[in-house]
């Protein structure tokens, strides 16, 4: 039995943590009673360095898809989008950033908190960029209008305007937010999300989010011109959490500095890795150290050990680094190595940080990388076993269709990616939610072609999507509003009746990997399954920046009539979703006409 003292401590620690679970059936219109300083996040009672699986009255085995702590706490953030001159690797260039920093401020909350983010677009009208902020991997249960995707859930927010997002942290772990218009995310508009909760293994200290990026002296908008005609450009550098050197260590004109930290022998550290690159698949490692992997995307998994970790664009992995190699050396390289099988690069061996052992001289490491096979693959599915399995997979899904991936060119001879022969082309000024609110057909506005739009009218059914390619280019596939299970993943032609191609057969239902971003292999297939428990217009797309802009995307319209109800009934700080949507679109239309802004890509 829990003592009253413990209860009081718990309440004080997380500001009125409810001791009963709440079902998440209604839309999150409940306004919170408390507002806390967003810079400090307290840890729930019961969760300590030696009891990380516990979390007040919950734990790592709690089914977070149905049970979420009712903390009553709201974390409020103010983001200001600016044009800046940045020099993350010592070379100055034009960039865009939130509050002047790349990565932007980290959003921090406890599991069950409500998060409010006010985003002001202070970009100069000279760049003519509207904006939006997408909270990657956040489920947005019954809050689809807060998903932050232009042409789907909102119009771009023009310079001079502010948009407010509000969502509930129903999951916990590590993620990131980023702009979801054009290539703006890779001009610098991204930052971390840390949602404190239980963990599947113990660790002493939390080092926070660690971004792995590619970077170049040219901006992504400049590079996109050649990407559309000549294919993916070669980027000249990469960054570890927003910093790196440019040039080799023995060169006098090396610029920048490396990310580094000092560790204590015997102490273990949690790192929340995010691949935020525009077009680079990384292998991550810390020389001579073994990593314990405890989460993939926002899904806690049974801990497993590895020395070389594959991380695709849009994916996150939470890893524990135990400092147990002081006897080997004073300092070690931490590496993010671009895989040349799918990513061009000029500094593959120089995207590095440094781990110094406390008490030793801070010398340049002389350690060697683990050997690896250059490839753009996911971690082995048999290693990615979720801690919690909400429901078993149905053998009779509502929908099960193939989406072949092909590459073609448009009338201007620019590369366009296609799913089922359709390259997404949607209008910034006419998002799906506005069409649904006005009860219009869901045909894509420019082509009147509905094949890039799949309607899923029925709740609580399984949907299988088979994505296949005969081209030698792999793609990280990301779905909004859901974690999906991986039903099949491999190279060659998918054979649905072959046991070898069926993870349900080889792993069993309880061990299917579940996450929000997974690799479609080159000349291969990816079969994902998700459950229709979240009404909304949800995008599924390749997370390679060039490919999204070149149309590699489709949308699911899940429970059309429920979406209409959400638009009318849900609200943000007293303004209902429909009003917020139309006000923002009106502001965009005025701006777009005044400055004659042209939309030149897919619209997402
Ligand atoms: C960002 O900048 C705004 C002012 O431009 C400030 O009010 C806000 O507190 C800053 N937010 C963060 C998270 O640093
Ligand atoms: C943002 O501005 C840059 C520079 O003017 C431009 O190249 C790019 O197309 C714009 N992006 C969007 C999404 O408007
Ligand atoms: C990475 O940068 C973010 C934003 O500045 C910061 O919150 C975080 O602690 C940094 N992570 C590491 C591992 O240094
Ligand atoms: C280590 O990081 C600090 C900033 O935290 C920086 O000043 C220093 O130059 C870095 N060291 C190296 C070798 O780059
Ligand atoms: C290094 O060790 C000293 C002495 O044990 C300790 O005071 C200090 O906090 C440690 N520094 C780090 C960065 O762990
Ligand atoms: C450190 O790692 C390198 C490369 O994997 C290996 O060759 C070497 O034996 C390791 N050193 C020790 C002392 O474990
Ligand atoms: C593929 O496109 C065809 C033709 O537009 C359409 O009839 C079919 O429903 C589409 N299939 C999927 C799975 O989107
Ligand atoms: C799409 O259909 C609407 C209504 O049927 C029509 O008004 C519009 O002109 C069509 N657009 C195109 C590009 O064909
Ligand atoms: C698919 O797998 C089944 C079962 O193993 C096998 O009988 C069939 O020949 C395979 N089809 C192809 C095209 O390989
Ligand atoms: C274009 C380029 O420099 N590619 C290099 C990327 O990294 C691999 C591995 O180090 C090199 O073999 C490529 O030449
Ligand atoms: Cu792609």
TrEMBL record:
It comes from the Eukaryota. Residues 1-17 form the signal peptide. This is Laccase. Residues 82-199, 209-359, 427-559 form the Plastocyanin-like domain. Gene3D superfamilies: Cupredoxins - blue copper proteins. Residues 23-42 have a biased composition (Low complexity). The keyword Signal applies. It comes from Aspergillus pseudoustus. CDD domains: CuRO_1_MaLCC_like (cd13854), CuRO_2_MaLCC_like (cd13880), CuRO_3_MaLCC_like (cd13901). Keywords: Copper, Signal. Residues 23-45 are annotated as: Disordered. Belongs to the multicopper oxidase family.
């Amino acid at each position: 039995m829990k003592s009253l003292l413990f209860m009081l401590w718990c309440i004080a620690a997380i500001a009125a943590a409810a001791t009963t679970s709440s079902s998440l059936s209604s839309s999150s219109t409940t306004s919170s009673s408390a507002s806390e300083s967003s810079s400090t996040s307290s840890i729930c009672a019961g969760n300590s360095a030696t009891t990380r699986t516990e979390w007040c009255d919950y734990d790592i085995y709690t089914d977070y898809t149905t049970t979420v702590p009712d903390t009553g706490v709201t974390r409020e953030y103010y983001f200001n989008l600016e044009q800046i001159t940045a020099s993350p690797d010592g070379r100055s260039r034009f960039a865009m950033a939130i509050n002047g920093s790349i990565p932007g401020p980290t959003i921090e909350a406890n599991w069950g908190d409500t998060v409010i983010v006010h985003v002001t677009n202070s970009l100069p009208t000279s760049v003519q960029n509207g904006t939006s902020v997408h909270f990657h991997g956040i489920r947005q249960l019954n809050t689809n209008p807060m998903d932050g995707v232009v042409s789907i859930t909102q119009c771009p927010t023009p310079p001079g305007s502010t948009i407010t997002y509000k969502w509930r942290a129903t999951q916990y772990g590590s993620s990131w937010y980023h702009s979801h218009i054009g290539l703006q995310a890779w001009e610098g508009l991204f930052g971390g999300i840390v949602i404190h909760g239980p963990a599947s293994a113990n660790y002493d200290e939390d080092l926070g989010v660690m971004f792995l990026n590619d970077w170049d002296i040219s901006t992504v908008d400049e590079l996109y011109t050649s990407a559309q005609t000549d294919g993916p450009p070669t980027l000249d550098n990469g960054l570890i959490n927003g910093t790196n050197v440019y040039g080799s260590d023995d060169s006098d004109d090396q610029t920048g500095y490396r990310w580094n930290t000092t560790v204590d022998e015997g102490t273990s550290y949690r790192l929340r890795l995010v691949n935020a690159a525009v077009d680079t698949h990384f292998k991550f490692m810390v020389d001579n150290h073994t990593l314990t992997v405890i989460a993939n995307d926002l899904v806690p998994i049974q801990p497993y050990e590895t020395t070389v970790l594959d991380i695709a664009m849009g994916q996150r992995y939470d890893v524990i680094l135990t400092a147990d190699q002081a006897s080997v050396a004073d300092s070690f390289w931490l590496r993010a190595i671009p895989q040349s099988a799918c990513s061009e690069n000029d500094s593959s061996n120089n995207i590095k940080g440094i781990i110094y052992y406390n008490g030793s001289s801070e010398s340049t490491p002389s350690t060697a990388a683990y050997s690896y096979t250059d490839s753009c693959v996911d971690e082995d599915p048999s290693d990615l076993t979720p801690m919690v399995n909400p429901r078993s997979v149905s053998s009779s899904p509502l929908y099960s269709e193939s989406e072949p991936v092909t590459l073609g060119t448009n009338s201007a001879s620019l590369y366009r990616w296609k799913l089922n022969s359709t390259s997404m082309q949607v209008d910034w000024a006419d998002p799906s939610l506005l069409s649904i609110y006005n009860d219009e057909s869901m045909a894509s506005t420019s082509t009147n072609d509905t094949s890039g739009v799949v309607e899923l009218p029925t709740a609580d059914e399984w949907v299988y999507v088979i994505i296949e390619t005969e081209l030698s280019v792999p793609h990280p596939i990301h779905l909004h509003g859901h974690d999906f299970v991986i039903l099949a993943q491999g190279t060659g032609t998918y054979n649905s009746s072959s046991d070898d191609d069926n993870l349900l057969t080889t792993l069993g239902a309880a061990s299917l990997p579940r996450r929000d971003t997974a690799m479609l292999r080159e000349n291969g297939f990816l079969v994902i399954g998700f459950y229709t428990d979240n009404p909304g217009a949800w995008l599924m797309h390749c997370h390679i920046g060039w490919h999204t802009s070149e149309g590699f995307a489709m949308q699911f319209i899940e429970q059309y009539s429920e979406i209409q109800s959400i638009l009318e009934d849900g609200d943000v700080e007293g303004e209902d979703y429909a009003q917020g949507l139309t006000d923002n679109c009106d502001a965009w239309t005025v701006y777009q006409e005044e400055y004659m802004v042209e939309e030149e890509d897919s619209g997402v």
